[in-house]
């Protein structure tokens, strides 16, 4: 093995049941006035989480202003509006409370709160301007209430520009959270379908970072453990959301997957899903990944099966056969089983309004907006290959 890699993981993580209350006493709060970013659904208010956070901030000597317009597939308009609220109220840090969409938005708001121009000026792909934000970003605090994106442990933020149907990931050293508090008790209220969607997102982060050509020893170790935990505990949490052991194991697996995204990277499976949910915003990200997954990973395993047996074993499957290609089938079997056990086996692209005539355009969008992930995919995929994968998934 030729070891050659960079390791940078600057986020302070407080992990465990009941950890939210440490927000009231932690000396690591990065400011005195927070913009608290939450989703538009009202769940954070309904569950009482927002009031708890505001109370803890006050106890720790910090004021807060709330911005509550974030959508499940967050939009550039709300990033810029949230940044304006932060500037008007002279907030000196941004706190994201909720799922990945909310925390991603908090990161992007933190960038725009202290930088000129429009958010898309700084996006590095698609129609983005490719500029470097001259002032970095405000400090970020992440309080995840779902076990899915791992955004509490990575710099990445994914925002959609609806008018051009672009959904693009962005991040830099300033968009790592300064502080993340991962409290599994905040996750017991997540309904079964959302538990499944977010858990599958974390699963695919782990699988993709293990397969990526930029993998490294630390990401490999964490990715395989996360795959194992999610395969075991996600069906449990979908069935019984109050099972705190399952919620805790999934919360750690999601955070592990976020660290993996910092040290390694997702691959073009995510590029292809971003194209899908940019064109069809009604598709939840985890659902989109799941609907594409068997076709996508089957296509890869047929052409480069070398790391799939490890993933199969992590899922508790026993690879059979002499060749790696035969052994790789065990991963696909485990994947199908996980999809069934989380209740997602009846999802179809067509039920979300996708037509066969859309598939080529989706492939073009995937290369246009997130083409860099194709470059670190372990199989060289062309536009025709991506179209063929969409067609397999559609069928």
Explain what you see.
- The protein is of the alpha/beta class and 395 residues long.
- It folds into two domains: 12-187, 3-Layer(aba) Sandwich (Rossmann fold); 192-394, Dehydroquinate synthase-like, alpha domain (Up-down Bundle).
- It has 13 helices and eight strands.
- The protein has helices at 43-46, 49-59, 76-88, 100-112, 192-211, 217-239, 244-263, 268-279, 285-303, 308-314, 324-341, 359-370, 383-394; strands spanning 12-15, 33-39, 63-70, 93-98, 140-144, 157-161, 166-170, 179-182.
- A six-stranded parallel sheet has the order 1-8-5-4-2-3, with helices on both faces.
- A hairpin with a 4-residue loop joins strand 6 (157-161) and strand 7.
- The protein is globular, with a radius of gyration of 20 Å.
- The model has no long low-confidence stretch (mean pLDDT 97).
Write the layout of secondary structure elements.
Elements: E1 12-15, E2 33-39, H1 43-46, H2 49-59, E3 63-70, H3 76-88, E4 93-98, H4 100-112, E5 140-144, E6 157-161, E7 166-170, E8 179-182, H5 192-211, H6 217-239, H7 244-263, H8 268-279, H9 285-303, H10 308-314, H11 324-341, H12 359-370, H13 383-394
Parallel strand pairs: 1-8, 2-3, 2-4, 4-5, 5-8
Antiparallel strand pairs: 6-7
